[in-house]
Amino acid sequence: MKTFIPKNLYSIERIFRAAGHELYLVGGAVRNIVLGRPPMDWDLASDAQPQEIMKLFHHVIPTGIQHGTVTIRFKGESYEVTTYRIDGSYSDARRPDSVEYTGNIHEDLKRRDFTINAMAYNLQTHQLLDPHGGKKDLKSGIIRTVGDPLLRFSEDGLRIIRGIRFASGLNFSIEQVTYEGCVPALNS
Q1: Phi/psi of residue 44, nearest 5 degrees
Q2: For the structural domain made of 2-132, what CATH number should be given?
Q3: In the predicted model, is pLDDT for residue 95 greater than 90?
Q4: Which has the closest alpha carbon to 39: 54, 25, 49?
């Protein structure tokens, strides 16, 4: 995995660690690296809260600060960092009404949409966290939700479209229980 990761990310991780914080590479970058493909962007997750991140770097953009996300500009590149979080209810079936910060990467990963997006790479130890079997699903060529598909799709209706997009783009199948969860979610 290390061959795909730019040196800037390791520099950013050292800054977080020196301040007493964790930093993981997450999302599509991890998925692509596991598949042997170069990442298109770099999403990071940390136990540091947005205000703490803004104190660590000179140029930070509050891109989605209400949901714990900021963008660090570092040596001419952009890196999106989201604080580990637990999502509240989704009254609009698109975005959480509230978020609660947590100090636990595993809590953050279990709120994610699909197993293939719920992996995290520790930039310090070079270990892959995969509590929901995303690597196995990538190897098997399936798209599967983290947890109950009805819950995942009722939280955010666009997750159905994302699942179809991933299946099509990766030439994967949608796992049966996940597929069956799409129909009731579309009818609600």
Answers
A1: -125, 155
A2: 3.30.460.10
A3: no
A4: 25
